[in-house]
């Protein structure tokens, strides 16, 4: 089986999660990448990636058909997704301003950082951290998209999806718990919102996706990872696959202004997804000649479950 890949976005309850992973699969089966100089980086990562720059050898060295293996670290999604597959990729997102303040306080508490909060959040490296780590991978494609503020609910979905029993922990917390919110002073909040607009948009969309998946989970229905990538007057196209490892093609209805226009099976090859190693070898696409006109609302509906994507219909606009 392919390894699982945990993208550890800083200060999103990732430390609690990775330690929970160690309990679930065994510490020796979790391989960490926290940088070449980090003491937390695993020996095989240091040798095969940082010294030899041989990702293929690394993936081959940790393969196992018997027990789950996990790769984890403060790394962007594109670093390991090709060897693990986007369907095996997991991450948590947190409200951007809460995450930002938590990271600042962590730096002050643990790294001896002495500069004021304003200097920290004005630094380009500290802006839109979550969006940057996810660059190149559509949010809809991520195998398990968790929400820090809904940690327990995320673990329920994880247990159902991957069969991993992760205990609820709250490690590396500088406050009393995940539910306690940081308070901003003066103009810090408005400035941080401006500087992290991409992350705020990403987080709001992630919440909507999580709510949809949670609703299907509670109804006992499988989730579909799907995205409508084009809806104009020439073509309507997208991709979709089941989130339960089924290789059966997803059947989708194309809705124009709420009316079924056509039913399609997601079996077309999507080369643009191949670096993510998607299910079905990338044969997950669908497309049709468009009959939509400017201003029409286009949406897809999964035939078997009624799940719709995008959650808000796409408006046909001039090209």
In short:
The chain is an alpha/beta fold and 319 residues long. Helix content is 32%, strand content 23%.
The count of β-strands is: 13
In the predicted model, the low-confidence regions spanning at least 5 consecutive residues are none
CATH architecture of the largest domain: 3-Layer(aba) Sandwich
Task: Give the tally of structural domains.
Answer: 2
> Strand order across the biggest sheet?
2-3-1-4-5
Q: Share of helix among residues?
A: 25-40%
The termini sit apart by: 43 Å
Describe the structure.
Helix 2 packs antiparallel against helix 3. The strands form 3 sheets. A 5-stranded parallel sheet has the order 2-3-1-4-5, with helices on both faces. It has a 4-stranded antiparallel sheet with strand order 6-7-11-10, with no helix packed on it. The radius of gyration is 21 Å and the shape is globular. The longest helix is centred in the middle third of the chain and has 22 residues. By secondary structure, the protein is α/β, with parallel strands linked by helices. The protein has 2 domains: 215 residues, P-loop containing nucleotide triphosphate hydrolases (Rossmann fold, 3-Layer(aba) Sandwich), CATH 3.40.50.300; 92 residues, Immunoglobulin-like (Sandwich). The mean pLDDT is 94. Helices cover 32% and strands 23% of the residues. It is built from 10 helices and 13 strands.
Per-chain topology:
Blueprint: E1 4-7, H1 14-25, E2 30-32, H2 43-51, H3 55-62, E3 70-73, H4 81-84, E4 89-93, H5 96-111, H6 117-122, H7 129-133, E5 144-147, H8 151-162, H9 188-195, H10 197-218, E6 224-231, E7 235-242, E8 251-256, E9 259-265, E10 268-269, E11 283-289, E12 297-302, E13 308-315
Parallel strand pairs: 1-3, 1-4, 2-3, 4-5
Antiparallel strand pairs: 6-7, 7-11, 8-9, 8-12, 10-11, 12-13
